[in-house]
């Protein structure tokens, strides 16, 4: 059974009111605006540091290989430790773990930025990049856990669906603004300035976020209740025959002992591993698409429009996020994921066929992007259904980890194909990887139906 610490006796229930949109109802929750906005600001490093490393290192050392390798090492370091931090947040609470982790994370970002500014040796900078990645944790998972706790008294799942869709849209806005801001700072202010801004944003957003104690989820402990050595199974079932003795003895609280049950990893809950595999595979398509389009734009001499072209995909995803949160979808969430991945595959096919016309490519990029945020929102909702509250942050963080791993693999694979062929061949990669994710999600759906 579960024991909650410091949990209010009653939850805040958001009553349905036709005068308010579903998103308006979300922000009527006490503290929702504050933790949503501060969490968004604190997520800015997610979209700036990896690109910032590439821009800074290429300018300072004029070496794309070193810049790309260091950025990939940073991303893998982040992916490796994200679930570990999430387990700490689940086990000990966001407030207790958040403050020291935030201080360590911001400190390492600043140390790395100053090291790049003063041009320390490449080997030292490489080590600092990995150490910086090892101090990063997923603010997105923390925000989504707060939404789940804030909406615990709401019987309808529509509000949580809207909240997770909105967070997916915020992720897209962060990934639209972050690279643009990083590129502007690197070219117009200073080649290393884009490494300092994420640290400041994380510090400001994180301080506000962890200061909001009223919306912090309580610690949920798994409590093991066992019979003492004097009781046998017959006594527990009320037979009255205790320890083989003929005298009936009443069972009291003293005859029981309790203790903390060690929480198991979120990966051990049925359905989580298949979902993580699906997200690794289909997240490969994003960087495959970006790298292939970048190579195409460079080949045709239209690099000045690259940022705008790539932003079209994210704009479509942002629109899809808010649209998805406003509708009610019935049936299995796994089925929804299969449908969205199938539509995304078709969208990539259209992008490949129209790649020689930039206006058509931009149009199909927006249309393809409409399904991306719904995929992420649906994945988070599946995790919410599978994983208990005591491991929810860790479960949600595995989605972020899968995305980071998939993005890194996609970049590497696209680079290999581009070296061997051309952008027309490389732009087939997102079609193939997303198409592969469809049967994998079907397998996850079948496994979830068999799970009791």
Automatic annotation (TrEMBL):
Q: How does it sit in the membrane?
A: Multi-pass membrane protein
User: What InterPro entries does the database record attribute to this sequence?
Assistant: MFS, MFS_dom, MFS_trans_sf
Q: What does the UniProt entry say about where the protein is found?
A: Cell membrane
Q: Which domain of life is it from?
A: Bacteria
Which Pfam families did the record assign? MFS_1
Grouped into one coarse class, the protein's main location is membrane
Task: Identify the stretch annotated as signal peptide in this record.
Answer: none
Question: What is the designated name of this protein?
Answer: MFS major facilitator superfamily protein
Species of provenance: Bifidobacterium bombi DSM 19703
């Amino acid at each position: 059974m579960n024991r909650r610490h410091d949990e209010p006796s009653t939850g805040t229930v958001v009553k349905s009111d036709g005068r308010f949109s579903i998103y308006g109802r979300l922000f009527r929750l006490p503290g929702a605006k504050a933790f949503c906005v501060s969490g968004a600001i604190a997520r800015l490093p997610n979209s700036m540091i990896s690109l910032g490393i590439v821009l800074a290192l290429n300018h300072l050392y004029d070496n794309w290989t070193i810049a790309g390798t260091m950025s990939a090492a940073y991303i893998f370091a982040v992916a490796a430790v994200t679930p570990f931090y999430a387990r700490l947040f689940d086990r000990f609470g966001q407030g207790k773990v958040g403050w020291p982790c935030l201080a360590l994370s911001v400190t390492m970002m600043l140390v790395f930025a100053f090291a790049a500014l003063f041009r320390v040796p490449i080997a030292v900078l490489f080590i600092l990049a990995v150490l910086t990645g090892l101090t990063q944790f997923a603010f997105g998972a923390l925000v989504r856990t707060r939404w789940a706790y804030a909406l615990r008294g709401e019987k309808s799942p529509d509000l949580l669906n809207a909240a997770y869709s909105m967070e997916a849209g915020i992720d897209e806005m962060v990934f639209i603004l972050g690279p643009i801001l990083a590129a502007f700072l690197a070219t117009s202010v200073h080649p290393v300035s884009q490494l300092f801004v994420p640290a400041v944003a994380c510090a400001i957003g994180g301080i506000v976020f962890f200061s909001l104690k009223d919306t912090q989820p309580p610690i949920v402990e798994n409590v093991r209740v066992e019979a003492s050595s004097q009781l046998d199974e017959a006594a527990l079932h009320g037979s009255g025959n205790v320890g083989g003795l003929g005298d009936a003895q009443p069972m009291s609280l003293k005859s029981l002992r309790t203790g903390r049950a060690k929480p198991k990893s979120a990966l051990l809950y049925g359905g989580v591993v298949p979902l993580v595999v699906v997200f690794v595979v289909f997240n490969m398509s994003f960087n495959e698409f970006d790298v292939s389009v970048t190579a195409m734009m460079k080949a045709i001499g239209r690099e000045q429009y690259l940022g705008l072209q790539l932003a079209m995909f994210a704009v479509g995803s942002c629109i899809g996020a808010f649209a998805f949160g406003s509708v009610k979808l019935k049936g299995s969430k796994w089925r929804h994921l299969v449908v969205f991945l199938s539509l995304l595959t078709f969208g990539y096919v259209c992008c490949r066929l129209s790649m020689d016309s930039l206006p058509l490519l931009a149009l199909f990029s927006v249309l393809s992007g409409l399904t991306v945020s719904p995929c992420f929102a649906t994945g988070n909702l599946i995790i919410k259904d599978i994983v208990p509250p005591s491991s929810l942050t860790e479960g949600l963080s595995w989605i972020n980890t899968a995305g980071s791993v998939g993005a890194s693999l996609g970049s590497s694979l696209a680079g290999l194909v581009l070296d061997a062929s051309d952008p027309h061949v490389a732009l087939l990669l997102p079609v193939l990887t997303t198409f592969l994710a469809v049967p994998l999600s079907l397998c996850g759906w079948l496994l979830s139906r068999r799970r009791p």
